[in-house]
């Protein structure tokens, strides 16, 4: 059994996509980040960076004690290696999957995240910051579009954890001020993943868990007012 500590963010969706594809049994433990539940001491034992998602594998292969992980990319890689699914055993194909997984973790996710912040959440609209991150998101969409020009999925070959990592960050393309019609190969890839039964189930779960995604002034303070001495 797997326990998934989850909220309905792009990073939160990633392991759900994997778990729904594989049918692994898992229990969802909602962590409402707008209410500050990510600072619960029990959660911090699993996720010291106070971010979701986190995972506890109660029956790790070759282990006697439960194994806990934080960081969505690490979780996807762990699950892929645990099951032998959605990552190739071929050294060349595996390298393709890993570099695009890290591209999302180090590039698309952080840049699109800053896009979300300055466009949607920042109390002061700063034109330079908005343009900086909208433009960088656009550049990264272009990288992805060119990559997909001659292959069905990001790493080439079959659907993989690289696709699962990237897809949730493309879902809010409209709020990122992007037009998928400008990226035809990316749009084709996006529409293909969107209708996969596991994807539909993953986003149905999100709708059940979080029925109110409004960010209030209080929740904005919780989400964006953190320092090393959290207030």
From TrEMBL:
Q: Please name the InterPro entries in this protein's record.
A: Glutathione-S-Trfase_C-like (IPR010987), Glutathione-S-Trfase_C_sf (IPR036282), Glutathione_S-Trfase (IPR040079), Glutathione_S-Trfase_N (IPR004045), GST_C (IPR004046), Thioredoxin-like_sf (IPR036249)
Q: Name the EC number(s).
A: 1.8.4.-
Q: Which UniProt keywords apply?
A: Oxidoreductase
Checking Pfam families in the record gives: GST_C (PF00043), GST_N (PF02798)
Domain GST N-terminal, by residue range, is: 1-87
State if Hydrolase is listed as a keyword: no
Cite the CDD domains for this sequence: GST_C_YfcG_like, GST_N_Ure2p_like
Q: Where is the GST C-terminal domain?
A: 90-216
PROSITE patterns reported in the protein's UniProt record: GST_CTER (PS50405), GST_NTER (PS50404)
Similarity comment: Belongs to the GST superfamily.
Q: Which PANTHER family match?
A: DISULFIDE-BOND OXIDOREDUCTASE YFCG (PTHR44051:SF19), GLUTATHIONE S-TRANSFERASE-RELATED (PTHR44051)
Name of this protein? GST-like protein
Q: Which organism is it from?
A: Azomonas macrocytogenes
The lineage is: Bacteria, Pseudomonadati, Pseudomonadota, Gammaproteobacteria, Pseudomonadales
